[in-house]
Amino acid sequence: MRKILPVITLLISSFVFAQTPCENGTAGQYPCNGLDLMSRISLSTFGTDRGNDSWGWTDPQDGKEYAIMGLGNGTAFVDISDPVNPVYLGKLPTHTDSSTWRDIKVYNNYAFVVSEASGHGMQVFDLTRLRNVSNPPETFSEDAHYGGFGHCHNIVINEETGYAYAVGTSTYGGGPHFVNIQNPLNPVGAGGFGGDNYCHDAQVVIYDGPDADYAGREIFFGSNEDRVSIVDVTDKNNPISISNGFYGSVDYTHQGWLTDDKHYFIIGDELDESSFGFNTRTIIFDVSDLDNPEVHFEYEADVAAIDHNGYVVGNDFYLSSYRAGLRILDISDIENKNMVETKFFDTYPGSNSANFDGAWSVYPYFASGNIVISDINRGLFIVRDHLLGTNDNSISDFMIAPNPAKEVVTINSKTEPLTKVAIFNILGQKVMDLNFADSLSENIDISKLQSGMYLVKINSTTTKRLLID
Hints:
Blueprint: E1 26-27, E2 30-33, E3 35-41, H1 43-46, E4 51-58, E5 65-71, E6 74-79, E7 87-93, E8 102-107, E9 110-115, E10 122-126, E11 138-139, E12 144-146, E13 154-158, E14 163-167, E15 177-180, E16 188-192, E17 201-206, E18 218-223, E19 228-232, E20 240-245, E21 253-258, E22 264-269, H2 272-276, E23 281-286, E24 294-300, E25 310-313, E26 316-320, E27 326-330, E28 340-345, E29 359-363, E30 371-375, E31 379-385, E32 398-401, E33 408-413, E34 418-425, E35 430-439, E36 441-445, E37 452-458, E38 462-468
Parallel strand pairs: 7-11
Antiparallel strand pairs: 1-2, 2-28, 3-31, 4-5, 5-6, 6-7, 8-9, 9-10, 10-12, 13-14, 14-15, 15-16, 17-18, 18-19, 19-20, 21-22, 22-23, 23-24, 25-26, 26-27, 27-28, 29-30, 30-31, 32-33, 33-36, 34-35, 34-37, 37-38
């Protein structure tokens, strides 16, 4: 770990907040726009004094959604299938010592956990155990452990190939350490790449973007302190550096995420706000030519907060911005150098200054529309787009699969017959209106709809989110 952060002032509350709509710019004490607070679980409930990363898991067996949150002393697992009444199921304690830094990713129904704690290695936890927790919260044990490295800053997983990439370890100069996790209970070291500086975070994909030279290759996009590092990691025994991307006023290249079409890579510099006086600054690289990444433009927000982790869902960029909380940006016009903030939920009321408190990370990939925010000081927040309302608190009545979908989506009901389905785009325009004769299952052709997020209203009572690839 090369980055030195200021001491974090912890504000711990023992209260658990329940559902609060965003009205007149606030949800209770929290400033907001377009996002309702479903619930919050405090750090004291988790038995810790600090929070950090977050991720999520959807059980393929029944569609239940689970939030996973990194803590100073372990990893918390929360059933959020009813987001207004989440259930803290238990904690996987740290493998060694407590740490400010802990990171989690999921592959094949297993969670993989790393930490900056000395000697921690990688913990493996079978998420299907969460189906049968009879007396929460439980203290869990790890199901497997990988000790090919000790401390580790972050973990990246390519779910298409079954490889994990541990970054910021003492191996390979802090570059990615490859681990084959295709058998999750038997992780096997598979080499690494140390040729391009310390790596802080990354995204790895099977490339299907505009650069035909690399079609079908496994490409690593690293945020490497002072640069973007693009590496072909298809052959683990012979990773090949493709190029570097540089930008002005660099201080600490922290994390980035590709747009769905792989044309742009959106990154944040964690220390430029405090070092240079920018408001929250986001740098957008054009990576349509992987051999020659170039800065497309820079976006600067209206607040001074430091940006941290950002993720893309369709035309939206979900950015955790420490003291400014979660910020959602419309990137539909990114080609013309336009990004617009459309919604936010501020988990750190009272200040948007450039300090290391507040929202550490966000997980926006649940099909229900539940959004998880992990906050350093105040624990786990579950928020939801105001358009979804509060009538989608249970997955028991209606299920949509697959989600995301491309050609056809199936809506199933266990009890209430389907009579009417309407689909709306993000502008609120109705793009499909269907009527059925009391069926419990219907296949809907969505092949003519463009990629993006849609709202599906079922029987005029229940609203669910649908992502179309």
